[in-house]
Every structure is written in C-alpha cells, then in structure tokens.
From TrEMBL:
It holds the Pfam family CN_hydrolase. This is CN hydrolase domain-containing protein. Residues 5-306 form the CN hydrolase domain. Gene3D superfamilies: Carbon-nitrogen hydrolase.
Length: 343
C-alpha cells in the first residue's frame, strides 16, 4: 500500500551577525507559506537556522556569545521563536529546525528539534555528534575557522529514530500486527558534518529509518579546514564541496534504503564567508529527486512514497540476513587508525 507524503527542504540564504531575529523568523514564515502552497507536510530548516553560523568567529564577549544561543525547553514559547512554531501548527506542517542550544547545566549543543503540528509540541531532539574544526583559531589570520569544538559539547542523545504522527494515511498503530513499513514514518535527524559519517546513518538504518533530515552550513572555500594538498580556486573548491555533500547524502541514503532531505544555509554570510547551496531530496536508490537552483531562500519540494524504501530494506540491504557483526569489531572499539605492521 502506498505511503505517500510531501516533504520539503527550506534552504536559507545568508544570515549575518547583524541580522535581526525578527527578520530571520519572517523569512522562515515566508518559506513555510511557500511550502504550504505546494502541500508540504514536513519542512526541514538548516543547521543554526536562527543565526549566522557564528562558530566561524572567535567571540570573546560572553554576552555576544549568549545572544546566539536559545533554550530547547522554551524554543516553542519564547517570543523570538514562537511565531514560527505557531505558524507551523496553523498550517499543519511538521518542522525541523536547527539552533545553538544552551542547556540548563550551561553546556552548549548544536541542536535540532522536530515539531509535530498534530501534537503541537516538540517530539524529538538531536544534538550534533560529530563536531568539526578546532577549539583554537587557525594561525593563518585569513583562514575560515570552524570553532564548534570551542562553543559546543558533542551530542549525547545518540541517533534516536522516532515516528511522526499524522503524515501518512492508514498507518498501523500500537496493538496492530507488527509489520515493517506499515506504521507512521520513521525519521532520524543529523546535523551537517554528521552526514559524512557512515556510523550515524547505520544507527538510523538499524532502526528502519525511512527519512533522514540534515541541516547544514558548509563552507565553499576553506583550505585550512579541508586541506591544501591540491591547490584549488574558490570556484573549484565549491564544486568539490557540493559534490561531497551530494555524494554522502546519495550514498548513505542508498546504503540504508531511506529518503533524505538536506537543507543548506547558503551564500555569502557576514560579508565574506561563502556557504554552499545544494539542498536536496534523495531517494532510497540514491538518486537526487529535487535540488536547489539558487543560493538563496528557496523551497526544495518532492512527493515521496515510503514504500520505495522496502525494496532495499528487504533485498540488498536486508540487515538481518546479510550483516556480519562478528567482523565489525573495530567500528565500536577504535577511533584512530591502526595500520598493519610494516613489511
Ligand atoms: N557546519 C559543519 O558541520 N560544517 C562542516 C565543515 C567541515 C565545513 C561540514 O561537514 O560541512
């Protein structure tokens, strides 16, 4: 039986250090309206969707730093974010939104939440596990920094898949006979750099994930970060960065037989920091179904059928029949590389 639903990535153009929160929220509301006109039931916003990607800056003022953080417990009720969630509920659209979270114990996390319009509340939260970059700025004064290890603690909530209600008709509920591919959609969230790590995808794959959501801020040209062995122009570097983005979204969607939605914050932020676009929706067979054409605010939309996940989950990637966990020891016992001895 088809399990169709309409999903969208809300790509956002740049948000600057000087941008006002109410203007950013207004842009997000406009994106929601556009998605609603297309019939979208689920909209993904980018990583740190409410602010500029501030971890590129060395921020020494505690007050300034705090201005980029929000609290997860008040994200739907605080006056400077509430209108977004209210509108999502009014339009009946589920949203996933990334933001810098300050927890009650003072820790900072790079977080996203999933808000269910049907439930009128946040039903899932994810904290970015793979924090890229460095704690200290690069020595090169012209380098693009990525100080996430300075401002954030690695995520501690794991890769917890969840079901979202009221997105597909006729979903099997508690008490019914358990049969894969018949319940409410199974979703997983990750944030930016996480998408490059197969481990997180497989954790979701092992929970039968059907749609992975991933918001991102990816620098187009950052040789100190990416490596400089092969010198590239900014244009060549950006083409490569978009290629790697799509490569991991397509490859991991295929290897876990799921759809994926990725939403960029794109364009030139804070005057000189270029972020890639390339927001896209990929299929369980690894194809790009829809993708952004600009580096501005843009809705990337597709109607999908979750039934398309079944083929991979039941044949090529039928985990229960084909996985050999006795052979995968190093994956959970080792972080760094251990090379074979020299000959
Ligand atoms: N925000 C990110 O996590 N950005 C990273 C870095 C390495 C640019 C990314 O993986 O895209």
């Amino acid at each position: 039986m088809p399990r169709t639903l309409k999903i969208a990535a809300a790509q956002m153009g740049p948000i600057h250090l000087t941008s006002k929160r109410e203007d950013t929220i207004q842009r997000m509301l406009t994106l929601l309206t556009s998605a609603s006109k297309l019939g979208a039931q689920l909209v993904l916003f980018p990583e740190t969707a409410l602010t500029t990607f501030f971890p590129r800056h060395l921020i020494t003022s505690p007050e300034e730093l705090e201005s980029y953080f929000d609290s997860a417990s008040t994200i739907t009720t605080a006056p400077n974010t509430k209108p977004l969630f209210d509108e999502a509920q009014k339009l009946g659209i589920d949203i996933s939104v990334g933001f810098a979270e300050r927890d009650t114990d003072g820790q900072g996390y790079n977080t996203c939440v999933y808000y269910s319009a049907k439930e009128a509340k946040v039903i899932a939260k994810y904290r970015k596990v793979h924090l890229p970059g460095t704690k200290e700025p690069f020595e090169n004064p012209d380098a693009v920094n990525q100080l996430e290890k300075r401002y954030f603690t690695p995520g501690n909530l794991g890769f917890q898949a969840f079901r979202a209600p009221d997105l597909v008709p006729g979903a099997a509920k508690k008490g019914a006979e358990v049969k894969a591919g018949t319940g409410d959609p199974i979703l997983g969230m990750m944030i930016c750099n996480d998408r490059r790590w197969a481990e997180g995808w497989r954790c979701y794959g092992l929970q039968g994930v059907e749609i992975v959501l991933c918001g991102y801020n990816t620098a187009g040209f950052a040789p100190d970060l990416w490596g400089t062995r092969k010198p590239m122009t900014p244009e060549e570097a950006e083409i490569d960065a978009v290629f790697h983005h799509k490569l991991v979204m397509q490859g991991n969607s295929y290897m876990n037989s799921c759809f994926s939605v990725s939403a960029a914050k794109a364009g030139m932020e804070d005057g000189k920091y270029d972020l890639i676009g390339g927001s896209c929706i990929t299929t369980p067979e690894g194809h790009v179904l829809a993708e952004a054409k600009t580096k501005d605010d843009e809705i990337v939309f597709a109607e999908i059928d979750l039934e398309d996940c079944r083929q991979g989950k039941e044949k090529t990637f039928d985990f229960v029949r084909h996985r050999r966990i006795d052979q995968y020891g190093p994956i959970t016992t080792q972080t760094g590389v251990v090379e074979p001895e020299y000959l």
